[in-house]
Amino acid sequence: MAMDEYLWMVILGFIIAFILAFSVGANDVANSFGTAVGSGVVTLRQACILASIFETTGSVLLGAKVGETIRKGIIDVNLYNETVETLMAGEVSAMVGK
């Protein structure tokens, strides 16, 4: 299997994952800081700075655990050793369906 054939799927998966991460992060921030900003306890600028720090810290510290759970706890990737392209297509499809 030539990996160059599937580079488009990797790029598409990266773009979809970026959009999903951005939208989920924005929703987290809105839920966390909406009341505080609305009541005037923190300014919008302060909320954005705090959210950037804590969202990034959380993803760096916990991102590997999430990946490990997906890899070991949800699907058995060893079933796809012979058909890696099927696993890639399934992962991209799952992200699109989110």
Automatic annotation (TrEMBL):
* Superkingdom of the organism of origin: Eukaryota
Catalysed reaction equations from the record: 2 Na(+)(out) + phosphate(out) = 2 Na(+)(in) + phosphate(in)
**Pfam families membership:** PHO4
Which InterPro entries does the protein's record reference?
Phos_transporter (IPR001204)
Q: Where is it mainly found? A: membrane
Query: What membrane topology does the annotation report for this chain?
Result: Multi-pass membrane protein
From the record, give the transmembrane residue ranges: 6-26
Q: Which UniProt keywords apply?
A: Cell membrane, Glycoprotein, Host-virus interaction, Ion transport, Membrane, Phosphate transport, Receptor, Sodium, Sodium transport, Symport, Transmembrane, Transmembrane helix, Transport
Signal sequence bounds? none
Where would you find this protein in the cell? Apical cell membrane
The text of the family note is: Belongs to the inorganic phosphate transporter (PiT) (TC 2.A.20) family.
Task: Tell me which PANTHER family the record gives.
Answer: PHOSPHATE TRANSPORTER (PTHR11101), SODIUM-DEPENDENT PHOSPHATE TRANSPORTER 2 (PTHR11101:SF83)
Record text on subunit structure and interactions: Homodimer.
Q: What role does it play?
A: Sodium-phosphate symporter which preferentially transports the monovalent form of phosphate with a stoichiometry of two sodium ions per phosphate ion. Plays a critical role in the determination of bone quality and strength by providing phosphate for bone mineralization. Required to maintain normal cerebrospinal fluid phosphate levels. Mediates phosphate-induced calcification of vascular smooth muscle cells (VCMCs) and can functionally compensate for loss of SLC20A1 in VCMCs.
Q: What is this protein called?
A: Sodium-dependent phosphate transporter 2
The gene from which this protein is expressed is: SLC20A2
